[in-house]
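About this split. The held-out portion is used to measure sequence recovery: a designer receives only the structure tokens and must propose an amino acid at every position. Recovery is the fraction of positions where the proposal matches the reference. Here is one held-out target exactly as it appears in the evaluation file.
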């Protein structure tokens, strides 16, 4: 199935100021993934899907997110040389969301098993279930290692809808972990109270989900945010960081499936990303909900690319 859904990576192109390490930009560092790609490197994987967004009654357009993220990252300058690869894009077509999630999981698991760091470029937040499947299947996830999912998001995405969508992935994950008898901590930073019903808050409490409201994530709340992240990191062994760009204010991130009326400042989101990257526990990361059709001056794509840049360049590898 994966061979049918994974399409080759597009060329990375951008500004060229020179070919020495002093002039290096991302597009000069990224090459297509191959069988003998070196361990420890970052591997980008696209997930072209907005099928889950439509099922969740949102506006389509996120399927174009992966290439927009590549384009925004391509010309960013690298302070130091690094190796990075592009595995291509899992493309969801003909409403085959579940097949796409399984295919993404296979790519993520293979990347992890090769000792590399997968960064998944979404796509709607239905990407999360596929990313999780990859981590759950990988050798690095042993019975003794507890997964922690840190979701930077305005929404819990814990809906109980019978058909999987961008609103259901973390409920699917928690139910799968419970059925397997394994441990997982799900925490969300940036929850918008007006965007989540009381029923969803009740569901979160039922699953022992820890969360921090967007009201408590301002720049002046740095200590509160730091404690929340520190407590999360202390309780888990492997971290899956997922960034739904609708956690950011609409002025910063207008190009998303559901723009935020309030949102969490970019300074806070960057602080959290830096802390997680430096923890030595970050195994996989994805970025979701970029909708280029509604982006203004590529604001959302540029902000997302900067976060990806920070995470990859500051990440401390996990101890295997």
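Reference sequence for scoring:
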């Amino acid at each position: 199935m994966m061979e049918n859904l994974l399409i080759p990576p597009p060329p990375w192109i951008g500004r060229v100021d020179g070919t020495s390490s002093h002039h290096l930009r991302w597009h000069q560092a990224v090459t297509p993934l191959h069988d003998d790609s070196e361990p420890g490197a970052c591997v980008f994987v696209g997930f072209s899907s907005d099928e889950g967004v439509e099922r969740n009654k949102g506006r389509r357009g996120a399927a174009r997110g992966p290439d927009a993220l590549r384009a925004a990252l391509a010309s960013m300058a690298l302070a130091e040389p690094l190796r990075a690869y592009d595995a291509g894009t899992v493309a969801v077509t003909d409403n085959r969301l579940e097949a796409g999630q399984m295919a993404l999981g296979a790519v993520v698991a293979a990347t992890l098993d090769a000792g590399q760091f997968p960064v998944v470029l979404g796509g709607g937040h239905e990407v999360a279930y596929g990313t999780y499947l990859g981590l759950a299947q990988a050798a690095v996830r042993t019975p003794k290692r507890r997964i922690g999912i840190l979701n930077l998001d305005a929404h819990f995405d814990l809906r109980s809808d019978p058909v999987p969508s961008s609103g259901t992935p973390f409920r699917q994950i928690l139910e799968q972990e419970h059925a397997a008898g394994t441990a997982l901590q799900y925490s969300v930073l940036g929850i918008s109270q007006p965007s989540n019903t009381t029923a969803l808050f009740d569901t979160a409490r039922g699953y022992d989900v820890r969360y921090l409201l967007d009201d408590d994530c301002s720049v002046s709340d740095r200590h509160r945010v730091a404690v929340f992240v520190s407590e999360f990191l202390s309780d888990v062994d492997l971290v899956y960081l997922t960034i739904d760009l609708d956690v950011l204010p609409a002025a910063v991130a207008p190009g998303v499936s559901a723009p935020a009326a309030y949102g969490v400042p970019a300074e806070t989101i960057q602080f959290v990303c830096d802390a997680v990257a430096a923890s030595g526990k970050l195994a996989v990361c994805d970025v979701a909900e970029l909708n280029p059709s509604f982006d203004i001056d590529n604001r959302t794509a540029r902000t997302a690319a900067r976060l990806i840049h920070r995470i990859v360049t500051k990440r401390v590898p996990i101890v295997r």
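Annotator remark: The mean pLDDT is 96.
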